[in-house]
Specification:
The complex is a heterotrimer. Chain A is an alpha/beta fold. Chain A is built from 23 helices and 26 strands. Chain A folds into three domains: about 280 residues, 3-Layer(aba) Sandwich (Rossmann fold), CATH 3.40.50; about 220 residues, Dimethylsulfoxide Reductase, domain 2 (3-Layer(aba) Sandwich); about 120 residues, Barwin-like endoglucanases, CATH 2.40.40.20. The N and C termini of chain A lie close together (about 10 Å). Helix content of chain B is about 65%, strand content about 0%. Chain B has 13 helices and two strands. Chain C has one domain: Alpha-Beta Plaits. In chain C, the strands form four sheets. Chain C has a four-stranded mixed β-sheet. The chains are: A alpha/beta, B mainly alpha, C alpha+beta. The interface between A and C is large, with 58 and 49 residues. Strand 1 of chain B pairs antiparallel with strand 2 of chain C, so a sheet runs across the interface.
Chain lengths: ~725, ~325, ~180
């Protein structure tokens, strides 16, 4: 019946439109075709996610028209993804932050008040100086995500603090990077250095490329499919790549290490491994062979539910295609708390197949050798980020955000001030809302730099409105990849309202903190121009071309029989890790069975949808109208048992009692009967995000059972169990 | 399980979640158009068959209703247009493959024919008003002319009015994209229904008992034919393509089952059939006034149900992953 | 008559919806309305499943019932091609074409009130470019060209690959092809 009601609503709206005589006269005449006006374009580097694809911002008669990929950009194949194409929505979003806001108390109630930039900046500088004077500058931490975070890292380092963390580490790719670094001495990089376009066999473990739109990854995977590469997808859910795979292995959740060990067992037992590669580059093969002997396919079957013949067949496919086999390192790797070890297992399997830095496996990334603008040295901080949580997570190669938050609670807390840039911590750190509240209460200063009124802004003392990527300069894109290149982000528009570029905000704060010599440029363009001139380009040239490609100076892969010194203590690929053993961890990956699903509960699986970059884009009007909410995937058997139907709304309760917002049920066979699934990034609570507020549910608030990786501090999020709750008067079709 | 799901939200007005482009305005137009056709056919038939004595109302006065009813129908049709000011665009071309274009032009022909039909019996039917016309030479001459050619005018009116009646059905059945409409029976069914409603109208408002009785008998016959055509229509869909079989479900257990069988078949056809039979056989005349009212109601119900069920029938059956109501937020000042 | 076709490879389509956003920005389609959309079709029972993604739009049929049923000639073929366009200056908003499309590919352009639809980006095709959706597709699963030219990419793909069209039984002879 609701369906008809909607019809009535919309036809009433259309009747209203028809009645208006002005509209009757105004319409029904041809409009000029797109692009017939005066068209201009400005280069940009997309900031809709972290991939940093280069594009062109088109204006027609001065109005924003569209953003398309820069055809010269090899990093993005000249094409933007859904979110990049939706970039205009970031600029046009009517809910953007407009003016600096400061927390004030009026009649005993806290509220935000619009203040001038000068007042806001002076307040922050005074508070920061106070922290430096009383407990030292290191007690001021930066929590950040995205390209613009660099301006504030520079500010903090100049200020005397090197305390910083990004959730991209301990909530995402940290275990992978640490696992790879422990094995190869190098990480899997961003963009990932996978050579999928040339691979003959690709193995995805829980990595749903295509649902995440990591542009280069998606494009090279499609290329591999076009070239008929064998695709093996391990996922309890029938993900998008599972649907494109020759082998889909619907694994029992949390048992991936068992499968990886089983594959190693077959690869070694059947001598499918690359003997020359292993002998030349690795240490610990004997220990590894002895270690994996116990993990026979038959044993693996009992743990994973994957049949022994399938395990053998897929291992043989990998062996046959090797070294052109990519066992994909994934990206979001914080699953079960043993994630560094799982990533180690992935790295070791790739080593056995000889695919690290070999064609069709992984390539050696290369950047453009561009000097940085000369600046005075930073003062040497007395503490590092990790000193805030000593004796924990010895292999955390970056700041651990959850560690920083915990070290900010209480009067004797390590940290006294936060600057938060571009990261919405309440939706990013699992089950952390209470801790964030406690930290905000303890801290002397919380500054949030944002374009949108995210939930995080609610914790701030001062909110500084940054303009969007379409209105500012940032650093030149120079990421390690297949083809070294530089790309320019520049303003296509003047900043809307009173928003300002991040570099300007950082410089203004720096000047108020007496750090003017660290910000010698009048305009960031001056800095960029200097740097570009060092490599034979200039800002003027880049403003015309947007992207400049450079020739590689080093080979893309290891040469045949090349001797290599790896950046590990042994200078070899470490199949057996003495480093781990020295700190009391397993030197080789060991399988631990996952916590079983309690009766009446379902495993909470979560992931991405291609229309959105987590919660960052859900209020973007172009992307909102593409995907306005997330859905809860429920297997038909489960739906039947609970009387759930597609289109109805339910809430979820975690085993520990957290209750989610309402979420729309999708009954689908694409998920098994032991789990439910939702895309991350919805369930916004900030009312000021007028499109997305209250649409869908937030998986992170259901994460009440976090397994922290003892090696590097990553928050394992896949061990959460939920069940359905229907509150009186709720539910029903919509 | 088979899922076909829109994974990009789509809230195209009048289309999502299912087609609903035409509402009561069009159903009313189809009903009134059919009624007009019936009115003109009966007025003409009574002339051709020389029934001035047995059916004085139908033969001499009924025709006046045609342009009035038709104009009411045109008004509701006009209300449906998204762009009312541009209604004249129907008459800037003739599209031979478009029943709607045919319809637009048939209406152009129907109006003068129906006016001439009125004028041909104006003096005998509406003497008082004819008196005004007769005071002017031109008026007299026109009335003379129409009376002289009364029979010929009626002969011309019959095929054109029949075309109008059938057209209201073909208008819908031409839409191959709507499986529920895609039946050749729809033309004859709408024609017969239109004639039935016209017969009921005469039975309702004619003064003489004999004329009422005559048209009750005619209506009875038409109802029987209409029931047969409804049965044919259902059989036609039931033995048609997969899409037609699917579409038929909307009246065989689907959302339109109740209205189709109770409102249209029950109240609009079977009850009048019973009442009229009782009346003609002389068993009971208590509810004689009710039957024609029900027939008129049934005639409208037929169009409305056909229109709604047909629009919902489609070749594509996509569920949507999203609640389209959320898209309304885009248009709200403060959602 | 030039017959333009779109050929979409369901093997590499991931259902990301870039085509939908690209259409919206290129053609400035009003908020909430769509000229193209993505369908996910899943069949089978866990874990024996098959999923297909399809980017859908007007099929620019060779036998376009929306054109034949239009009472004013507003729905017409562009130049000497199969590209179906609407001439707003002839449209009355009678909505016959919406009912006539078996693919539900037409929409009312509110607030202007005339009927709107995918144009195959004829303003780009005229300049030798692909439609915006095809140009944006990150997996390059979409292809566009003339079926009259045997050497065009679309002709070659249809010669070498298995394909289908949507509801061929409509008799409309659609020109958006899906490679299997």
């Amino acid at each position: 019946m609701k369906r008809r009601e909607f019809i009535k609503l919309s036809s009433a709206a259309s009747a209203g439109a028809v009645v208006s005589p002005a509209l009757m006269l105004g319409g029904c005449v041809s409009k000029p075709l797109p692009g017939t006006g005066t068209v201009t374009s400005t280069p940009t580097v997309c900031d809709m996610c972290f991939w940093k694809c280069a594009g062109d911002v088109y204006k027609e008669d001065g109005e924003l028209w569209k953003i398309t990929g820069n055809p010269d950009d090899l990093h993005s194949g000249g094409r933007l993804c859904t979110r990049g194409t939706g970039g205009p929505g970031a600029y046009l979003d009517r809910d953007r932050l407009r003016k600096p806001l400061m927390r004030v108390t009026v009649d005993g109630r806290q509220t935000f008040q619009e203040v001038s930039w000068d007042e806001a900046l002076q307040f922050i500088a005074t508070k920061m100086q106070g922290i430096a004077d009383t407990v030292g500058p290191e007690r001021m931490a930066l929590l950040h995500h995205g390209a613009g975070g660099h301006h504030f890292l520079h500010l903090l380092r100049a200020f005397g603090s090197d305390s910083h963390a990004e959730p991209a580490f301990a909530q995402c790719r940290g275990p992978r990077d640490v696992g790879f670094r422990l094995t190869f001495g190098e990480s899997a990089s961003s963009p990932e250095r996978t050579d999928m376009a040339n691979a003959r066999c690709i193995v995805l473990l829980g990595s749903h490329i295509g649902e995440n739109l990591h542009n280069g990854q998606v494009q090279t995977l499609a290329e591999a499919i076009n070239k008929d590469a064998t695709l093996i997808t391990v996922d309890p859910r029938f993900s998008v790549p599972a649907g494109k795979s020759k082998h889909w292995l619907p694994i029992k959740p949390g048992t991936d290490i068992a499968l990886l060990l089983g594959w190693m067992n077959v690869v070694i037992e059947e001598e499918l491994y690359d003997k020359d590669y292993v002998e030349r580059y690795t240490i610990g093969f004997e220990q590894l062979a002895a270690h994996v002997r116990q993990y026979t396919p038959e044993w693996v079957f009992l743990e994973t539910g994957i049949r022994p013949d399938v395990i053998r067949e897929t291992a043989r496919e990998m062996g046959k295609a090797a070294p052109a086999t990519v066992v994909h390192p994934g990206r979001h790797a914080t699953w079960y708390g043993d994630d560094t070890q799982r990533s180690r297992a992935v790295a070791i399997l790739n080593t056995l197949l000889g695919s690290w830095n070999r064609e069709g496996g992984f390539y050696i990334p290369e950047k453009v050798d561009m000097p940085h603008y000369p600046l005075p040295d930073y003062p040497k901080p007395k503490f590092k980020t990790g000193d805030a949580y000593p004796d924990k997570w010895p292999f955390a190669s970056q700041g651990v955000t959850n560690g920083v938050i915990e070290a900010s609670i209480g009067d004797d807390a390590f940290f006294k001030g936060w600057m938060v840039y571009g990261t919405n911590l309440p939706q990013t750190i699992p089950g952390a809302v209470d801790k964030l509240r406690a930290a905000a209460d303890s801290l002397d200063l919380v500054v949030v730099v944002e374009t949108m009124p995210s939930e995080m802004t609610g914790y701030a003392d001062v909110i500084l409105p940054e303009c969007t990527f379409l209105e500012r300069y940032d650093d030149i894109r120079n990421s390690g990849e297949r083809h070294p290149s530089l790309a320019l982000r520049m303003p296509a528009f003047e900043p809307l309202h009173e928003s300002k570029p991040g570099w300007w905000i950082a410089k203004q704060l720096g000047e108020r903190l007496g750090l003017r010599h660290y910000f010698p440029w009048n305009d960031y363009a001056d800095k960029l121009d200097w740097e570009l001139r060092q490599v034979g380009s200039s800002l003027e040239e880049m403003q015309k071309i947007g992207v400049k490609n450079f020739p590689r100076k080093r080979p893309l892969y290891f040469l045949e029989g090349q001797n290599v010194r790896f950046f590990t203590p042994s200078r070899k690929i470490e199949l057996y890790s003495q480093q781990l053993a020295d700190k009391g961890f397993d030197p080789m990956p060991v399988y631990t069975p996952p916590e079983p699903v309690p009766s009446g509960y379902y495993r909470l699986n979560y992931g991405r949808m291609p229309a959105h970059t987590f919660g960052k884009t859900t209020n973007n009007p172009l992307l909102f109208q593409l995907a306005p909410e997330n859905q809860l995937w429920v297997n038909p058997l489960v739906a039947n048992e609970h009387g759930l139907a597609s289109g109805e709304y339910v809430r979820l309760a975690s085993r520990e009692g957290a209750i989610s917002s309402k979420i729309r049920v999708r009954v689908t066979e694409r998920i098994g009967p032991d789990s439910v699934f939702m895309a991350h990034g919805f369930g916004h609570k900030s009312k000021r995000l007028r499109l997305t507020a209250g649409a869908g549910a937030d998986d992170s608030e259901l994460m009440t059972n976090i397994k922290v990786d003892p090696i590097m501090g990553g928050t394992g999020m896949r061990g959460n169990f939920v069940t359905f709750v229907r509150q009186p008067g709720e539910g029903g079709a919509a | 399980m088979k899922e076909e799901l829109l994974v990009t939200a789509r809230g195209n007005e009048l289309i999502d979640p299912s087609l609903h482009i035409w509402t009561w305005e069009v159903a009313m137009y189809l009903f009134l158009g059919g009624l007009t056709a019936g009115v003109m056919v009966f007025a003409a038939l009574m002339t051709v068959l020389n029934k001035d004595e047995e059916a004085p109302f139908a033969a001499k006065r009924l025709a006046l209703l045609a342009p009035l009813v038709l104009s009411a129908g045109m008004t509701t049709l006009f209300l449906d247009l998204e762009h009312k000011l541009f209604v004249y665009r129907f008459y800037t071309s003739f599209q031979i493959t478009s029943p709607m274009s045919w319809g637009a032009w048939i209406l152009v022909v129907i109006y003068p024919i129906s006016i001439m039909q009125i004028l041909s019996t104006f003096r005998s039917g509406y003497g008082f008003f004819a008196g005004f016309a007769d005071r002017m030479t031109i008026g007299r001459e026109i009335l003379d002319f129409c009376e002289r050619y009364r029979r010929q005018i009626a002969m011309v009116a019959i095929p054109f009015a029949t075309a109008l009646g059938i057209y209201t059905g073909i208008l819908l059945s031409a839409f191959g994209a709507r499986p529920f409409w895609n039946s050749g029976v729809l033309g004859p069914l709408f024609l017969v229904s239109g004639m039935s409603t016209a017969a009921a109208l005469v039975a309702l408002i004619a003064r003489h008992h004999s004329e009422k009785a005559l048209f009750t008998r005619i209506d009875l016959g038409l109802i029987v034919v209409e029931i047969a055509l409804v049965a044919l229509f259902l059989i036609n869909l039931a033995t048609g393509t997969g899409q037609q079989i699917d579409a038929l479900q909307s009246v065989l257990g689907g959302p339109y089952t109740l209205v189709f069988w109770v409102l249209f078949v029950g109240i609009g056809l079977l009850i009048p059939l019973l009442l009229e039979t009782l009346e003609i056989t002389g068993v009971s005349k208590k509810l004689a006034m009710l039957a024609p009212i029900l027939v008129l109601f049934g005639g409208y119900a037929l169009r409305q149900i056909m229109l709604d069920a047909g629009q919902e029938s489609s070749w594509t059956h996509y569920d949507t992953q999203y609640n389209s109501e959320l898209l309304e937020r885009l248009h709200e000042e403060n959602p | 008559m030039t017959r333009f076709a779109m050929v979409i490879d369901t093997r590499t389509c991931i259902g990301c919806g870039d085509c939908v956003v690209a259409c919206k920005t290129e053609n400035n389609v009003p908020e909430g309305l769509n000229r193209d959309w993505v369908v996910e079709a899943t069949s089978g029972t866990y874990p024996d499943l098959k999923t297909e993604f399809r980017s859908e739009r007007c099929n620019h049929c060779s036998n376009p019932t929306c054109v034949t049923l239009c009472p004013t000639g507003a729905s017409h073929l562009w130049k000497d091609t199969n590209i179906v366009l609407v001439e707003p200056e002839k449209c009355t908003g009678c909505k016959a074409c919406i009912a006539a499309c078996p693919y539900d590919a037409r929409l009312v352009m509110h607030p202007d009130g005339y009927i709107d639809k995918c144009t195959f980006c004829h303003h780009r095709v005229e300049k030798g470019m692909d439609p915006a959706c095809v140009s944006s597709c990150p997996t390059r699963c979409m292809h566009f060209g003339s079926l009259d030219d045997p050497s065009s990419e679309v002709s070659k793909l249809l010669k070498t690959r298995e394909y289908k069209v949507l509801s061929p039984e409509t008799g409309n002879e659609p020109n958006v092809y899906y490679l299997l």
